[in-house]
Write a structure and sequence with these properties.
Length: 345
């Protein structure tokens, strides 16, 4: 089946979590994102897949990369885009999620939602009856995954058999999505985190079931040396997610899991077969107000860096800005595949 035929199977669908799709469909989205990126680089523009479409971008959490990717990417494909910030609508306060969804579905052709509970996304999609795209929920971050696995494929030429070690808070949405998506695509994802911060049993079981079909070998462990050994990708994220404030407790738990030069050496991987990734923002130095506040108020730190040192962040291994740039073609591919005019493919 061609990439186009696989993409046609996504028309009219919401993109709420990875397991709603087949591995072949996720691979098609990655390929489509790569194609859009190349078209933009070569021709300075992309086909107007979203011509005459109206999009609502609904944010209950602040955003940089996700917002810009939907807003700029939608506009580049010909869409009319309306942004709603966390305080400028009645959504979820004076008006229920279901009622708002009915209204949004009458007004727009597609909706991006960045919020909290995954169930809110499901409710919104059911009520709106137009494609709804998950810009991030407490449980999953599927648009990030298309960008992440595109980045890995660009660096290694393939996905199957790659070893990815995610080090840090293993209960957050990025860790959940990496574990499940990797298990779907044949990538061996290791979640390296203390027992209190490991994925739920349900997420681990889902990954194991998917891995039986792809041949992937997922692992969840607190053992740093075991978890990062032979890794091709070292991946980390902030230690305290949006809406959380327990910095000291997380520092106490995760300080041994900081991504630094010593941890990279534990991989034993040849330097030309190893990269570092981070979904950003990153606390790698003291040049943000949050990092400075944490460093001044919390103990147990050797400097301002938290989940990754500045040395690693600026090293030859670093791919976090390539990864950030890939957010836009990834999100454009998702929007075009589910809502766009694929006769332009």
């Amino acid at each position: 089946m061609t990439v186009l035929n696989k993409l046609k199977g996504l028309q009219g669908r919401s993109f709420l979590k990875e397991v709603d799709f087949t591995p072949a469909q996720l691979e098609a989205l990655i390929e489509f994102a790569s194609q859009l990126k190349q078209e933009k680089q070569q021709h300075g523009r992309v086909p107007q897949y979203l011509h005459d479409k109206s999009l609502i971008l609904l944010f209950q959490k602040t955003s940089t990369r996700t917002r810009l990717s939907f807003e700029l990417g939608g506009a580049e494909m010909g869409a009319h885009v309306a942004y709603i910030d966390p305080t400028s609508s009645q959504f979820g306060t004076k008006e229920s999620i279901e009622d708002s969804g009915r209204v949004f579905g009458e007004l727009a052709d597609g909706i991006e939602y960045r919020g909290f509970a995954q169930q809110d996304l499901e409710t919104l999609a059911t009520a709106a009856q137009v494609p709804v795209w998950n810009g991030l929920s407490n449980e999953w971050h599927p648009t990030q995954m298309i960008a992440d696995f595109l980045t890995i494929k660009e660096n290694f030429g393939h996905l199957r058999g790659i070893n990815l070690a995610y080090v840090g808070d293993g209960r957050n949405n990025v860790a959940n999505s990496l574990l499940v998506t990797g298990s779907m695509l044949g990538v061996n994802v290791h979640i390296v985190a203390p027992p209190a911060l490991q994925p739920s049993a349900a997420v681990q079981q889902k990954a194991q079931t998917l891995a039986q079909q792809s041949g992937a070998r997922p692992l969840v462990t607190a053992d740093i040396e075991k978890g990062v050994r032979a890794a091709n990708v070292i991946y980390t994220d902030v230690w305290v997610s949006m809406g959380e404030h327990n910095w000291q407790a997380r520092i106490d738990l995760l300080r041994p899991y900081q991504v630094n030069s010593a941890l990279l050496e534990k991989t034993k991987t040849p330097t030309d077969q190893l990269i570092f990734m981070h979904c950003l923002p990153a606390f790698h130095d003291g040049n943000t107000t949050t990092a400075a506040q944490v460093a001044s108020q919390c103990h147990g730190l050797d400097g301002p860096a938290l989940e990754v040192t500045d040395t690693v962040f600026r090293s030859k291994y670093a791919r976090q800005f390539q990864e950030a740039g890939n957010r836009k073609p990834a999100i454009m591919a998702i929007m075009a595949a589910t809502l766009g005019d694929l006769t332009l493919f």
